[in-house]
Amino acid sequence: MGAPRLEQPNRERVANGYARWNNETQVKKLAQVQTRPSEKSKNRRRKGVTTVSVEPHRHEGVFIYRGAEDALVTLNMVPGQSVYGERRVTVTEGGVKQEYRTWNPFRSKLAAAILGGVDQIHIKPKSKVLYLGAASGTTVSHVSDIIGPDGLVYAVEFSHRAGRDLVNVAKKRTNIIPVLEDARHPLKYRMLIGMVDVIFADVAQPDQSRIVALNAHTFLRNGGHFLISIKANCIDSTASAEAVFASEVRKLQQENLKPQEQLTLEPYERDHAVVVGVYRPLPKSANK
């Protein structure tokens, strides 16, 4: 089986992205404007109207904030609290106030993939997610928002310094279970984690495909899905990014992990790709 088709972003958009990347001021500005403004937003700015709204994104549990600037947002599970200094916005819907948190694609590979047009993230309300490489909990907190109080995210992080921040985030979010262990050794935390629907991995290690495979064999249900963020330079700094991505896809295939989609993360990250796939696909009759 060959590697899945590599989604190439619009050439002009990528070129513009690299130009922005090289200008620190423009990068900060681009981080604030996280989605392409809609015609409604443009008209509001022309007329000086400040009315704001939130629209559901096609990925369940993710939303688009339409205001003076458009942004990717998630519904805040802990209203009144920010996690990493992100902006919070309040919108009244049907007489009820709802608070949302802006999601910066420069600080989250998952947000970058969503804005890049990934077909599926497989993370939705009530999902059980194993997050490898949770760091201080930036993206984990948005996953927490998406899955809601009926979901669970097991957040694995080996760094004790980042782990302290992660534990503090989990104290306010009951659907986050922090696991301060090395993701290379899933048997050390097998008693803490049940079977999961999705694995998201952002470990940036040369053996990251093996790390994902070990955890999938231990915790991912048959027919479950995985998303892996690949940083080419962390695996082989002498090869081209495309060659590294293709090599990692082959490694995943050898472990019963079937890649279905591959997406580069420019202009938000250089030489990064996200690979999305399924583990031990169920027979078609079982999916019906």
Q: What structural category characterises the helix and strand content?
A: alpha/beta
Count of spatially separate domains: 2
Strand order of the largest sheet: 1-12-13-11-10-7-8-9
Q: What CATH architecture of the largest domain do you see?
A: 3-Layer(aba) Sandwich
The share of residues in helices is: 25-40%
Helix-strand pattern: EHHHEEEEEHEHEHEEHEHHEEH
CATH top level assignment of the largest domain: Alpha Beta
Short description:
The protein has 10 helices and 13 strands. By secondary structure, the chain is an alpha/beta fold.
Describe this entry's structure for a reader.
With 288 residues, the protein is an alpha/beta fold. It folds into 2 domains: 11-102, Phosphorylase Kinase, domain 1 (2-Layer Sandwich), CATH 3.30.200.20; 106-287, Vaccinia Virus protein VP39 (Rossmann fold), CATH 3.40.50. It is 32% helix and 26% strand. It has 10 helices and 13 strands. It has an 8-stranded mixed sheet with strand order 1-12-13-11-10-7-8-9, with helices on both faces. The chain has a 5-stranded antiparallel sheet with strand order 2-3-4-6-5. Strand 2 (53-56) and strand 3 form a beta hairpin. The longest helix is centred in the middle third of the chain and has 13 residues, at 160-172. Residues 1-37 have low confidence and may be disordered.
Secondary structure: elements and pairs:
Blueprint: E1 6-7, H1 11-21, H2 24-32, H3 39-47, E2 53-56, E3 63-66, E4 71-75, E5 88-93, E6 96-102, H4 109-116, E7 128-132, H5 138-147, E8 152-156, H6 160-172, E9 176-179, E10 196-201, H7 208-219, E11 220-231, H8 232-235, H9 241-253, E12 257-264, E13 272-279, H10 284-287
Parallel strand pairs: 1-12, 7-8, 7-10, 8-9, 10-11
Antiparallel strand pairs: 2-3, 3-4, 4-6, 5-6, 11-13, 12-13
Helix pairs in contact: 7-9
